[in-house]
Design brief:
9 helices; five-stranded parallel sheet; alpha/beta
């Protein structure tokens, strides 16, 4: 079961491993390697709204970055079985993200939160938004009537999401974030000072020149490559859809506490 309150670093590392947010995660090695190969082969579905050109055409280079920044097995001959996320690297990423959230709060910045994984991370982003608003930040309200080929771009609980057929939709696409930023520009409204998101929502924002940070799984290399190049501010490695979204609560509490935002942000 999730631990209550704000955990220490050691307690959080233990919790992440026990709940398989990190450690031996559910994503199999063959899926990881397939996604690294697809990105290297130029499949834009795996680019998450970023533009890599010909900089990452060798899947072994992608694997090397993922081993360094996520903690997957670095042996290219290890092709099947269990793969891993290093829980210490997850917490390192949370602490980098906390530093950026602290700056946003100190400067009362405009922040946009979004998720392509609402089944796992919606509440993480919602609590972050609530804590930032309480600290004096402006949570960006997205324009109405936005849509992409996949569905409608909407905002629930201060978090931008994709809605399709009356259902919140899982998407890797950068198109929803493109729709938001384009609409803001057309309305003459300022862009966010910071985007906190995941998947293509974070990738497209970073590519567009907005400060962006995101959560990403071990089979989603794009954000980690962007962080390594300096395009993305922070990429936090984790399994982005575990058995219960409640398992992320201690992680969110730790993040907000380290950001000086009280460890709460509920409601």
């Amino acid at each position: 079961m999730p631990i209550s309150g704000t955990p220490s670093r050691a307690e959080l590392v233990d919790h992440l491993v026990r709940t398989r947010i990190a450690g031996e995660v559910a994503t199999p090695r063959e899926n990881n390697l397939s996604h690294y190969r697809q990105l290297a082969n130029g499949n834009r579905h795996f680019w998450f709204g970023l533009e890599f050109g010909d900089r990452w055409t060798d899947e072994q280079d992608v694997l090397a970055v993922m081993a360094e920044r996520v903690g997957v097995n670095d042996d290219p001959e290890y092709r099947y079985g269990q793969d891993t996320i290093d829980a210490e690297l997850t917490v390192d990423g949370l602490e980098r993200l906390a530093g950026r959230l602290r700056k946003a709060a100190e400067d009362r910045q405009r922040v946009l939160l979004a998720t392509g994984h609402p089944g796992g991370l919606l509440e993480v982003h919602h609590r972050t938004a609530a804590a930032l608003r309480a600290a004096g930040c402006e949570i960006v309200v997205i324009p109405d009537r936005l849509q992409t080929d996949e569905g409608y771009v909407m905002q629930f609980a201060d978090v931008a999401v994709l809605e399709h057929g009356a259902t919140l939709w899982h998407t890797h696409s950068g198109e929803p974030m493109k729709a938001i930023l384009t609409a803001l520009e057309l309305e003459g409204r300022p862009l966010p000072d910071l985007v906190v998101a995941d998947h293509g929502w974070a990738g497209y924002a970073a590519q567009h020149g907005v400060d962006a940070a995101g959560y990403a799984d071990c089979n989603d290399p794009a954000l980690f490559l962007a962080e390594s190049e300096g395009t993305l501010q922070v990429a936090v490695p984790l399994d982005d859809h575990v058995v219960s979204p409640r398992y992320y609560d201690p992680m969110t509490a730790y993040l907000l506490d380290r950001a000086g935002l009280g460890g709460g942000g509920e409601g």
